Batch of 2 targets.
Target 1
Amino acid sequence: MLAIVHSCAIVGLEGAIVEVEVDTARGLPHFAIVGLPDTAVQESKERVQAAVKNAGMTFPHGRLTVNLAPASLRKEGPAYDLPIAVGALAASGQLRPEWLDGSLVVGELSLDGSVRHVAGILPMAALAAKRGFRQILVPAADAAEAALVEGLEVVAVDSLTALVNHLSGVKRLKPAPPLRLDLTQEPTGGDFREVRGQEHVKRALEVAAGGGHNVLMVGPPGAGKTLLARSLPSVLPAMSLTEALDVTRIYSVADLLPSDTPLLRARPFRAPHHTISHAGLVGGGSWPRPGEISLAHRGVLFLDELPEFGTRVLEVLRQPLEATSSLSAGRGVRCRSRPTSCWWRR
């Protein structure tokens, strides 16, 4: 019997729909996952089998084949545990496949059947709403983040047993309420009001903040360059909802979003160490990840002790500064990255 469960992958900063096809057949016990899975996805075989057993259900015997389509898209991370488990139960007749129509399923499973947090929920939920899905089933820890997307029913799942009861109608889970968006910016870092003197420097920084210019600060140690740079976000305007969602999306993909803060309201301030690699600064890698430039999107990127940065690192800054965007190395995935100002110190 064949069952299909819809899930989602992250490519760069965007989501991509993945069909989890689960097929059961007679034969010796065998569990195979195909479709360009990484090690974390391959290891889901052990997590899914233990979770299904400990949740009080029967894992299908015989041959079980899971295909993650499209096969040309590489899959990474444990977010496919929950859709694979649900697909296995549907393929073995313990769930009816039509109960999953219009639903997107994402989540990592513990061995006891509980559902854990996964990264990138916000772009996944945004894609689900765009593609016309009726609801998204996400870990309970990520429900508030998914609720930022309008027009999508968000169901918070804390365990595999609760999800099975929800789908079968035994005990329905209540949809997560829409998140009330409060864009009041919380004070972080320093404040210009705490800086005495340096009136000409503060005026220059205010002009740079107003026009989104880059600044090179030169001066002796102790002149207050670092303090002034860290105080700059206090004079930047509060982010609009669109800007806040842009920043939150990046931090969600990078798995840097605080668990108690589904929406980032303060403009980011990034100050990478001078030993950072070019991939860490610009982004990219074999599995594309946002770099420090992308993490400073809509905020401030501060490069302290500029001459200490590697030559190659400084060279890769030219294109982002000119084009106000960064291409993840080797994959052609465009990552939004437009910090308001770059702060260099020598």
Note: The CA atoms of residues 8 and 18 lie 5 Å apart.
Target 2
Amino acid sequence: MITLWELKGRGGRRYSLFSWRARMALRHKELEFESEPVCLTDKATIEFSGGRTVPVIRDGDAVVRDSWKIAEYLEHRYAEAPPLFGGEIGQGVSHAFNAWVDRVVVPAMFRVIAADVHERVDPADADYFRASIEKFLGTTLEETRAGGDQALRGLGRTLEPMQAALKRQPYVCGSRPAYADYILFSVFQWARVMSPQEVLGPENPLCAWRERMLDLFGAFARNVPVA
């Protein structure tokens, strides 16, 4: 059994977007896993990994940290299972897409939902989360909430390329989902788990795509605690 260490929030939430990438990759590879929830401030629990952040997996004697490295590990360790990348070129393109999502989409989403996320992190992490996120955003959480409409419009502009792509194909990766889909989906699942705001209108192609993603693997991602 593979063990996955991931962040815990209020009400049993698993809210790390990076852990959701690992979760979906494990399900894609048809692998069972056990979840070990940890607080954002609890660095000692994952010290064995050689790092200070989640996700971390332990698979037998192997310990792997970082969502991208976990995906690479699963692809090579379980090569006979459904592929995450579709070959070397697909892996390279997925890596580039990963960088774009992390550097462009994640900050745009964070400005929309940061205050909501703060309300739902584990109480032990609330002060640390506020201090670190206000430093990252360069503003207070209260100011981000006041500027929510502007932030939501900015998110929409950021996502326009993906809206155009998903008008022409059902998944980011084409006719079937793969790891690039899980990269983008993790951002929307993060929002769904931690914020009551609906960030996608029903006419948006991303909305129908998100519904398809939620139905994967027996509605694995749909049937979790949400905001």
Note: The chain has a mean pLDDT of 97.
